[in-house]
Amino acid sequence: MSSTAKPYIPRLLQCPEISFFLFGPRGTGKSTWLRHVLPDALYLDLLDASQFLELSRDPHRLEAMAADRSDGAWIVLDEIQKIPALLDEVHRLTESRNWRFALCGSSARKLRRGGANLLAGRAITVNMESFSAAELGKSFDLSLSLEWGLLPMVLRGPQQAPDILAAYLDTHIREEIRQEGLLRNVPPFMRFMSIAGQLNGQVVNMQNIARDAAVARSTVDTYFSIIVDTLLGHFLPAWRAGVKVREAAHPKFYWFDPGVARAAAGWLHDPVDRPWEGFSLETLVYHELRVYNEVSRKQRPLHYYRTPAGVEVDFVAETSRRTTARVPHIVAIEVKRADKWNPAWNKPLISLGTADGVKADRLIGVYTGERSYRFGAVEVMPYEKFCDLLHKGDLF
Ligand SMILES: Nc1ncnc2c1ncn2[C@@H]1O[C@H](COP(=O)(O)OP(=O)(O)O)[C@@H](O)[C@H]1O
Ligand SMILES: [Mg+2]
Predict the structure, then answer these.
(1) pLDDT at 2
(2) Which of 134, 337, 348, 361 would disulfide-bridge 391, Cβ 3.0–4.6 Å?
(3) Best residue for ligand 1 mutational test, from 32, 44, 156 (most atoms within 8 Å of Cβ)
(4) SS3 of 92, please?
(5) Does residue 141 sit in the same domain as residue 256?
(6) pLDDT, tens digit, 9 for 90 and up, residues 354-380
(7) Which ligand is nearest to the CA of 45?
(8) Which of 279, 295, 319 is the last residue in one of the domains?
(9) Which domain holds residue 46?
């Protein structure tokens, strides 16, 4: 490491005991984390031209390369999507040699494309995202995160955030275009990215997007599936008490990181306005909820809440499932980019908390002010306190 190297920031994600896939958008710190949690592993990086050539010509080389390793030893294959065919060899070696594999890549999409079997359920999957506020601790800066997001590269050079994010998205788009064979469709894909960037945090209507991007409806579906499969964005489905999800409204779409959303929108050089910051704050809350779901392995279903009358709550975590005998339990979270909490904002939470067919365990307001409040069943708290309670396992 050079003397200017910044210290490693420990991540919340724990290394599994058994073979695993590690997926996540590029630049979220996957390779860095693997080197820290598996320091003794044989580390093969398929971005390295010589390792790539050797293994792509002859996947059986893998056994020879690791031959001196004992039972239970770890082998890391970074950028595994470059040689999907290696997975058959990995599968064989987990059984014949009892080695454990950490298989890292930006998405399962390219592996499936390559016709790879995902080890027939013999490996678990973990996802890595941008930094969590809980990982950054005292160095977490909310206003910086609202503007530029939480990618490690961005946090290392916040002064260059616009350039870093522009290059990040550019690399990503180029790579997807190449991988997906979209070469003849570059302009529509670019138009789509910018529309999808601008509607971060909003309800998506595929028909309208198809019209605005001047592409077929089915093309919009394909483009979204590229973004979702590469974990750059997530659909948040609608939820209604006592109603099947299918019957509820369209989903919302969120990018994994507010800085990447801004880059996609093409607004890196425009000042952000309050409505955009509102969606940014929701993006951060959703990000922390996904990180918590991942590191706690709780995987609670997340939704937003909307009634036909227009009552809306930003996030609903279903903490115990609906059964024939029992209504679902939920934790509801309303997010406001505001330094003062307006008690009128409690109404949608209370309306959800008193709705039929659901039991609300917690009703939470998250905002950017400094004090905590309690209005009857509604608990209002600053963003930082919310993250703290969430990661302590206090909310669900
Ligand atoms: N835990 C960390 N602490 C400090 N810096 C990090 C950490 N993880 C990643 N980084 C920074 O972010 C950059 C990108 O991380 P990397 O591990 O290459 O991401 P990925 O493998 O997901 O593409 C690294 O070069 C490093 O500068
Ligand atoms: Mg990497």
Answers:
(1) 45
(2) 134
(3) 32
(4) helix
(5) yes
(6) 998 899 999 999 999 999 999 999 999
(7) 2
(8) 279
(9) 20-127
